[in-house]
Design goal:
By secondary structure, the chain is of the alpha/beta class. It has two domains: 12-47 and 306-404, Aspartate Aminotransferase, domain 1, CATH 3.90.1150.10; 52-303, 3-Layer(aba) Sandwich (Aspartate Aminotransferase, domain 2). Helix content is 37%, strand content 14%. The protein is built from twelve helices and 15 strands. α2 (50-62) packs antiparallel against α9 (292-301) and α4 (107-113) runs parallel beside α5 (133-141). The radius of gyration is 21 Å and the shape is globular. The protein starts with 15 loop residues before the first helix and ends with a helix. The structure holds pyridoxal-5'-phosphate. Pyridoxal-5'-phosphate binds at residues 42, 106-108, 111, 131, 181, 185, 213, 215, 244, 246, 252, 257.
Length: 407
């Protein structure tokens, strides 16, 4: 008799984005002809830049010739790309061996899968609010109890609030796996070196492991803020880092990312090298490598020209964030984020709940955003607006807020 993995039954009803789509579709059915302006999902909108497009098309053309055709490649990615990524880190003073970099098809899948190489009885700590994959993958793996008003039993929530600048205090009990996302989705907050150092020291002291999601690192403009956890001394023994080409190169549909598992990483019950070996084994078993065509695109994105052009695109999205921020501030709304991240995190006016503000924004302004409570209990009373969008749409959305929002 086959039986299902009942941990799936614990998942909070409806993933956040399908619920947003459901409410938006219902609104559009009731208001035919209304133009809905979307600042909800963090999906890129601008075309892939020419230098990267050339890399992708070269990758396609190479498949058409006997001498350059390639089939399965190494599941960890081709060496030139891993080397180019290592060179990128070297610019920030971080020394990595290319074999510590695992190329993949997404930071989402990597951040969901990485917990699977650790023991089921590990205690997990997450920033609250957080990108939902961290929590859901641990729920599915059976590390939590049921969900209640204040989140899942057995999970340690580390509140990110106005009071702590949206970066958490250290956990008040011993935890084993710690998720940190910086620049943060959804709050847009970026951890400082001092803040990360505290977590790195904690992890080394308790033989815990940090999963550091830096998918938005390219949006950091402040040179003093760390783009990688490995800029912090001691991180190589306790941290795994995920990053992605999705938001930098417009690869949300193309799919390319990487995860760094240092060889010096250790756990309570393993010596240096073991976690690296386990992730290698895991990837070799479950994954046949990122697309060879796409890896050529990634390599082009890391070329001098590719970097210039993708940097300009990142700057464009950051300008969108400023436009959104300025519009909200002119309405007297308190905002956070947006300076070093493509997300603006706003405090809902008059203490309205996150979902009520969603309905209000959609009903009054025809603007779709993302309710903060969908990212965790501490997100209640906040709301995320995404800076990914065509300029014209962002300007229209901001104008509509100014003209129509009743506060
Ligand atoms: N990590 C964070 C924090 C994200 O916000 C996202 C996408 O929105 C991802 C990872 C997904 O990255 P990828 O497209 O490489 O799967």
């Amino acid at each position: 008799m086959a039986r299902i993995n009942t941990n799936y039954n614990k998942l909070a009803a409806g993933y956040l984005f399908p619920e947003i789509a459901r409410r938006t579709n219902a609104f559009m059915e009731q208001n035919p002809g209304a133009q809905v302006l979307r600042l909800g999902i963090g999906d890129t909108t601008e075309p892939i830049v020419p230098a990267v497009l050339k890399g992708l098309s070269d990758g396609v053309l190479a498949l058409g010739k006997e001498e350059s055709y390639s089939g399965y490649g190494p599941s960890e990615g081709v060496l030139p790309l891993r080397q180019a990524l290592a060179d990128l880190y070297a610019e920030r003073g971080v020394s990595l061996d290319p074999s510590e970099i695992f190329v993949s098809d997404g930071a989402k899948s990597d951040s969901a899968n990485i917990q699977g190489i650790f023991s089921q009885d590990c205690v997990v700590a997450v920033q609250d609010p957080a990108y939902p994959v961290y929590v859901d993958s641990n729920v599915i793996f059976g590390r939590t109890g049921d969900a209640g008003e204040s989140g899942y039993d057995g999970l340690v929530y580390m509140p990110c609030t106005e009071q702590n600048g949206f970066f958490p205090e250290l956990p008040d009990r011993k935890v084993d796996l710690i998720y940190i996302c910086s620049p943060n989705n959804p709050t847009g907050a970026v951890a400082t070196k001092e803040q990360l150092k505290k977590f790195v020291d904690y992890a080394n002291e308790h033989k815990a492991v940090i999963f550091f999601d830096s998918a938005y690192a390219a949006f950091i403009t402040d040179p003093d803020l760390p783009r990688s956890v490995y800029e912090i001394e001691g991180a190589d023994t306790c941290a795994i880092e995920m990053n992605s080409f999705s938001k930098t190169a417009g690869f949300t549909g193309v799919r390319l990312a990487w995860t760094i598992v240092p060889k010096s990483l250790r756990t309570e019950d393993s010596e240096a090298g073991k976690v690296h070996a386990l992730w290698t084994r895991r990837q070799n078993t479950f994954f046949n490598g990122a697309s060879n065509v796409v890896q050529m695109g990634g390599l082009a994105a890391l070329s001098e020209q590719g970097r210039e052009q993708t940097d300009a695109q990142v700057a464009f999205y950051l300008e969108n964030a400023s436009i959104i921020n300025e519009g909200l501030i002119s309405l007297g709304i308190t905002t956070y984020g947006g300076g070093n991240a493509p997300y603006v995190w706003l405090k809902t006016p008059d203490g309205v709940s996150s979902w009520d503000f969603f309905d209000k924004l959609l009903g009054e302004c025809h603007v779709v955003g993302t309710p903060g409570s969908g990212f965790g209990p501490a997100g209640e009373g906040f709301f995320r607006l995404s800076a990914f969008g065509h300029r014209e749409n962002v300007e229209k959305a901001v104008q509509s807020l100014k003209d129509n929002l009743k506060i």
